[in-house]
Recover the amino acids of this structure.
């Protein structure tokens, strides 16, 4: 018997089932199909403005910094200012997300490069797929638009999120993933990011910038 | 089971005695007592639905275990559909062979690793090394203990038994290409050095091995949860990503995993959500600019399917948050290494006998005060004290306890079955002890109990037994 068959046989013997019981199969198939929501905390179930405020509070509690802008056209200047204020070089790497590439970068003196990170980039910007107010969590999806390496290799990660994409809970974002990628389909990677990288492994002392970004800066765009 | 287990669990008593005498370890363990408990409580208090979410997490895991064969089938199909490979391993030896063959196929010289308790369970590092492949642990705590050739002493804080000065010594010993006069007196300097050293390793690795906190049947997705981002760099940079997970990590849907994630970090570190929660499905897609080209999942059984349908099935709900050990007075006293194998604390005391045998690990379920704190904080409500009691019963039934222990129990049993005699004997003992210790209020030494009084004082009884007081107060209340 192959390892696979034996593992299945052992599970079924222990559970006292054959695996062919119609009702069991229906129960499992239905759960996969319906994906019932379960208990959603009341915390994030707020009108749009309050939800945005909660997202901001929660992201800051996770040690991210947050700014709000009225227009996507203001993003390049705001990022240039952020980098200068932190004495960081005026360089920025990004994927080919149209929402990013359409921004007026030429109005700044930022040196822009495109594509995934090879490990030497100090600053990167990504556009979030969504965000969750409940815990101040950003959601990004992989692809040439926003390569996953940009989330982890640079020292300073800037994430743009549209105000309309800030949901109250994770489940709302999963519905959006299903809408974009089909039920049961997924992009190669979905990243939930809540604050900058950290470690408490040395004497339980919280230190930022373990392997991922030392800074996480969130730019909310209302448009 | 065809596995060689390097466990010192049979020597638990000697391990514990050594741990209690280790001043350095005792200082480090102070961090566990202080940090984790308050943080968890605060996080739980901030979420009104926390207790109800614990029920939901328990129910999801129970439902999954009852339909595990079906969800495994669905999961396997989805992984294949997204271009990944699924390998089943009956035991540690098979899992090691599968991983080695994938590494060889990839022509691997170095392998980076995210934190994975299963990889400790199958001792993959030693196996890779013996075959000329260098494994590099990338979680900061795991990296430190790999340098020291130690096992993790905690399932989410592997190096919690160490102090910063020890880490400094290890870094100076191993990072010999760096300036010997560099300042490493602050923890942040240690972190910065590890980050720089490991960044090179991440970029050079041929294969990345991670564990999985969850596997999602609906989408064929593996989920990892980290604060450092090391798991992500491990899995997106090399050409090949291997997910090593045990079969009970499965959950049906993305909604189910979201429910459980709401209790995981809060129970573990007191965070509302860990920094990085990553959902990976298959290898890189044709348009992708980064990510692994090969995606393999190794599903390990190693004794778990045999736990289904038994008293110990409930242990398979465990999501490895570490709350039970963070709240355990025995863990606080002796640390994780005393437990002698991969899984310490209350969850280890239940799981270890299931995986390596009660004959080897029988001391672990006995190392409990039955205070019940572990059960009271478990996010999936595993009745850990009850399960430890089951192991004690089995150990007794199988005559695995030493003769003195058995005769002691028989001696106690003789009195316990004769209530009048029991009351008389305990009353005599309490009065005698109460009188003998009336001045100091405690005993630093007692006959027949030296093993107990060696590490703590025995408070002087007040001269009355509990039963006598119970009767007296009940009578008083009725009157």
């Amino acid at each position: 018997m192959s390892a696979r068959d034996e593992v299945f046989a052992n599970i079924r013997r222990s559970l006292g089932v054959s695996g062919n019981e119609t009702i069991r199969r229906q129960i499992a198939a239905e759960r996969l199909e319906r994906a019932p929501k379960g208990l959603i905390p009341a915390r994030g179930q707020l009108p749009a403005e309050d939800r945005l405020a909660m997202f901001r509070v929660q992201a800051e509690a996770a040690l991210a910094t947050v700014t709000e802008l009225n227009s996507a056209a203001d993003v390049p200047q705001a990022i240039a200012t952020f980098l200068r204020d932190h004495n960081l070089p005026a360089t920025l790497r990004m994927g080919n997300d149209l929402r990013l590439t359409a921004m007026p970068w030429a109005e700044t003196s930022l040196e822009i490069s495109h594509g995934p990170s090879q490990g030497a980039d100090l600053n990167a910007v990504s556009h979030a797929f969504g965000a969750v107010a409940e815990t101040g969590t950003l959601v990004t999806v992989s692809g040439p638009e926003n390569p996953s390496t940009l989330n982890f290799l640079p020292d300073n990660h800037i994430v743009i999120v549209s105000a309309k994409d800030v949901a109250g809970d994770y489940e709302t974002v999963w519905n959006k993933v299903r809408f974009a990628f089909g039920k049961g389909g997924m992009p190669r990677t979905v990243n939930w990011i809540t604050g900058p990288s950290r470690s408490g492994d040395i004497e339980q002392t919280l230190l930022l910038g373990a392997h991922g970004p030392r800074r996480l800066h969130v730019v909310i765009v209302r448009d | 089971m065809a596995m060689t287990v390097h466990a010192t669990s049979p020597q638990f008593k000697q391990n514990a005695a050594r741990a209690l005498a280790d001043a350095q370890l005792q200082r480090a363990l102070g961090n566990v007592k202080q940090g984790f408990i308050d943080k968890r409580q605060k996080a739980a208090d901030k979420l009104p639905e926390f207790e109800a979410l614990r029920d939901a997490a328990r129910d999801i895991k129970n439902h999954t275990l009852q339909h595990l064969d079906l969800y495994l089938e669905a999961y396997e199909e989805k992984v294949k559909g997204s271009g990944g490979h699924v390998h089943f391993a009956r035991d540690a030896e098979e899992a090691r062979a599968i991983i080695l063959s994938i590494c060889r196929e990839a022509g691997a010289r170095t392998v980076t690793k995210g934190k994975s308790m299963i990889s400790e369970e199958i001792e993959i590092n030693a196996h890779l090394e013996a075959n000329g492949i260098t494994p590099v642990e990338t979680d900061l705590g795991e990296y430190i203990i790999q340098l020291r050739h130690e096992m993790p002493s905690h399932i989410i804080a592997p190096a919690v038994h160490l102090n910063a000065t020890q880490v400094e010594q290890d870094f100076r010993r191993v990072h010999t290409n760096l300036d010997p006069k560099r300042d490493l007196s602050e923890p942040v300097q240690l972190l910065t050095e590890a980050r720089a050293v490991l960044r090179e390793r991440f970029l050079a690795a041929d294969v990345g091995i991670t564990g999985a906190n969850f596997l999602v049947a609906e989408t064929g997705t593996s989920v990892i949860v980290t604060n450092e981002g090391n798991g992500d760099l491990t899995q997106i940079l090399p050409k090949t990503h291997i997910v090593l997970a045990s079969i009970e990590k499965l959950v049906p849907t993305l909604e189910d995993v979201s429910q459980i994630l709401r209790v995981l970090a809060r129970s573990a570190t007191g965070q509302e959500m860990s920094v990085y929660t990553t959902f990976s499905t298959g290898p890189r897609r044709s348009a992708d600019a980064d990510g692994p080209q090969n995606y393999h999942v190794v599903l390990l059984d190693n004794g778990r399917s045999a736990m289904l349908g038994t008293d110990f099935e409930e242990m398979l709900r465990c999501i490895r948050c570490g709350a039970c050990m963070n709240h355990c007075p025995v863990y606080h006293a002796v640390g994780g290494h005393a437990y002698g194998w991969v899984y310490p604390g209350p969850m280890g005391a239940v799981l270890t006998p299931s995986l390596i045998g009660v004959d080897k690990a029988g001391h672990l379920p006995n190392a409990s005060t039955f205070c019940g704190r572990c059960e009271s904080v478990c996010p999936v409500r595993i009745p850990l004290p009850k399960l430890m009691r089951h192991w004690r019963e089995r150990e007794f039934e199988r005559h695995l306890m030493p003769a003195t222990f058995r005769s002691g129990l028989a001696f106690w049993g003789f009195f316990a079955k004769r209530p009048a005699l029991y009351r008389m004997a305990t009353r005599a003992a309490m009065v005698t002890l109460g009188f003998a210790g009336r001045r100091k209020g405690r005993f630093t030494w007692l006959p027949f109990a030296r093993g107990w009084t060696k590490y703590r004082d025995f408070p002087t009884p007040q001269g009355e037994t509990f039963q006598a007081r119970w009767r007296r107060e009940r009578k008083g209340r009725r009157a």
Observations:
- DSSP finds seven helices and twelve strands in chain A.
- Chain A touches chain B through 84 residues (CB under 8 Å).
- The domain at 42-221 of chain A is CATH 3.40.50.10420 (Rossmann fold).
- Chain A has a mean pLDDT of 97.
